[in-house]
Specification:
Layout lengths: L1 E6 L7 H15 L4 E5 L11 H7 L7 H11 L1 E9 L7 H10 L6 E3 L5 E3 L6 E6 L4 H5 L4 H14 L4 E6 L5 H14 L2
Parallel strand pairs: 1-2, 1-3, 3-6, 6-7
Antiparallel strand pairs: 4-5
């Protein structure tokens, strides 16, 4: 089993990149095997194509990278998502990741009465986000990370015990320094 980081930022000079490096270092110091899915560096195409949709209902992958990603997810006992919030939600590439990677038969199945039954059994997850808004500020927009992602998508597929760490006002040096320390403490 492994700790899996899903990293979503196009620039290696970003604060998000520093967060990814901090998490990797902390996990490796604990003797964890770490795998990083770097969506931008991998050239992941988040657009659902007609070829993807032809196989979607059958739970099959047209995109070999999406299939590789789901296999890495299935082999993880811990998953960490690191990304900036853009317009109060995840970057489009991450939304497309959920669309193309989280397929029926791999991360969920149909249950009785059209219920969704989770197939993953990941019992430790962390969502690390950055933005100019604080968590309280995000609540005025419906608390999208907590409601849509953690209580929605993750619960439906079996990603449990999720901690959300957020750096609001990320443009301030003091906030960034304090958040790096919070990340280090979280992964000790």
């Amino acid at each position: 089993m492994q700790s899996l980081i899903v990293y979503v930022h196009p620039w290696d000079g970003s604060f998000n990149h520093a967060l990814k490096e901090t998490v990797q270092t902390a996990l490796k110091a604990k003797g964890k095997k770490v795998k990083v899915l770097d969506l931008y560096k991998d050239g992941f195409n988040p657009v659902m194509t007609s070829e993807d949709l032809k196989l979607f209902g059958q739970g099959e992958y047209n995109d070999p990278l999406a299939k590789d990603y789901v296999n890495n997810i299935k082999n993880a006992d811990e998953i960490i998502f690191i990304y900036p919030l853009w317009w109060y939600g995840e970057p489009a590439i991450l939304s497309g990741f959920f669309d193309k990677v989280f397929l029926k038969g791999h991360v969920y199945k149909d249950g009785d009465n059209y219920n969704i039954v989770p197939l993953l059994n990941i019992n430790k997850a962390t969502v690390i986000t950055t933005a100019s808004l604080t968590k309280d500020g995000l609540k005025t927009f419906g608390d999208p990370i907590k409601k849509r992602l953690i209580e929605g998508i993750f619960k439906m597929v079996g990603i449990n015990n999720v901690t959300w760490l957020h750096a609001g006002s990320v443009h301030k040096a003091e906030v960034r320094t304090n958040f790096i320390n919070e990340i280090k403490n979280h992964f000790q």
